[in-house]
Design goal:
The complex is a heterodimer of chains A (about 375) and B (about 220). Chain A is built from 14 helices and 16 strands. Chain A is an alpha/beta fold and about 375 residues long. The longest helix of chain A is centred in the middle third of the chain and has 29 residues. Chain B has about 220 residues and is of the alpha/beta class. A 7-stranded mixed β-sheet of chain B has the order 2-3-1-4-5-6-7. Chain B is globular. Classes of the chains: A alpha/beta (about 375), B alpha/beta (about 220).
Amino acid sequence: MMLQQQREVDAEYLLFQAKREKAFLTGSEAVAEAIKRANVDMSVGYPITPQSEAMQLIGELYQMGYLQDYYRAENEFAVMASIHGASLGGGRVFTSTSGPGTLRAMEMFPVWAGARQPIVCAFMCRGLSLPPSIQPENIEMGMLLNTGMIMLHAETVQDYFDMILGAYAIAEQPEVHLPIGVFADGFFLTHTRESVTLPPSDIKLKTYNPSAAPVPCFNSETPPLRITRDPLLNKSNAISYGANASWHQEILSASIRSKKHINRYIGGSLETENPDAGIMIVASGTAVSQSREALRILHKMGIRAGLVKIKTIRPFPGEELAAATARASLILVPEFNAEGWLSREVMASLDRNSRVVSGPRVFGGMTMPPNLIVNEILSRIS
Amino acid sequence: MDKKVSIRMSGLGGQGVVTAAHIIGSAANKDGKFSTVNPFFGAEKRLAPAESYVRISEEKIYERGEILFPDVIMIFHPHVITLGKCYTMPFYEGLQENGIIIINSDEPLEFKQEDIEKFKSMNATLYHIPATRLGVEIGGTELATNMSMIGSLLGVYPLISVESLKESLAERFGGGKFIASGTTAALDDALKGKYEQLAQLIEKNMEVIEKSSEQVRKYTFGQEG
């Protein structure tokens, strides 16, 4: 197989300076377009709706010579473990999964974070059994809040493309070196075709430099056992308790240190519209899109409302959110899940959180009619 | 064109509902309008209900997911109505005032009086077209049903240009720019085999579309149309 010849460029050039061309793509296709330009060494996948198409397209990229290795593993746990190994060996890696696949692989996510690996994984969120559902929902995000991973949530197909490439730039900073999950609501984004702009495909990110990593990658001089077992599993030794605790503190610190790189590569943790409004909608993912339509309806009714789009779920931008909603007397948190994990994050970050209305929530696969948001607001202000 | 048009297409898996939406949305995009396209289906299988949605607007579209309040409903198979293979019950649930319904059936379907009253109260206009038959007669394959349905839409509501439509067809079936999904690609290969050449394929599809646009008939419900 001949590898594709692409010019290596800085992430800044690829993301912000290269001339872009219009395309009409689904989220799945945009993932493949991002990986085509990400200079990924290896990808491993296991199919699950709604992720299957994206990983199949990445298999096709391998066939075309954009990746050095690609295969289908036995299941999602095997996928995430293989990706762990490939990354420990010093490669830039990519994978993706959805819903039940995410849960099956759960053990590996804190392992990635603990091993300080800049793995990028695209989660295409869907419902969990039972009752069975393959349809859009982001309940799995609520279950991944505490793995040590950085979590980005895309609203649009354009976001998904830009965030996956930005994720490599953020994750591979020596002072960060954490895995990044780039989340999208299945179908609403993965299967929706919309206008995007893409930089040319004959350029790609610079080759990953594993020697800049804070934890050395494995080779014949750095055997795996030294990192994974010594001293962290020798529980009889008080030093190992301290080592373990300080290691976890360092993971949290690395997450906080990622913020300046998040600002640089994906334009910040949140975006605000009408920040001085007394009514604010706080949302992430495609609930933001539905909220934008709700704002249009409210505007026509002469009701002024604003919007905060949260792009990073971890690290959660609590202070920025508090500042963005300081003038609001009503804060609505629409979500595509039954649990309301985002509203809990929001309430934990704000003072006077009786201002927060947890909802509306839609789950099971249905879309969220913008009028549902509008009516919720009207019922609170009348 | 109105500021925003929402089209809901209901059909059976394998009929090309998703592809038809892709081609219409892509053509609208080429015409300089905003458009988004998305499908909805269960665990993929042939003949199971499949829907796809096209939104076309003069301004940016944010809204996502299924179209609850369509302006146009396109029914790709009579079973959507007669066997209830539909995501909404009745199939016209949510249709907006002055809406359009186009149904693929060889003969006009019989409707209950209460449905007819409902259509009248919404000021809906119904059309029927033997899309599968035209697909077979003109295109030589029932896989051209979706092309015939696109033609029927153009016949009653020309909201995309013929030039952009042709360009979208070339892009969709011409490979290169477009990356098809695995299952869709397999279907496309079968089609290409039948038509031998891409140019011929597009020409045939355009012929199906053009002739179908003239074959679409209005339901009169006993009155002169």
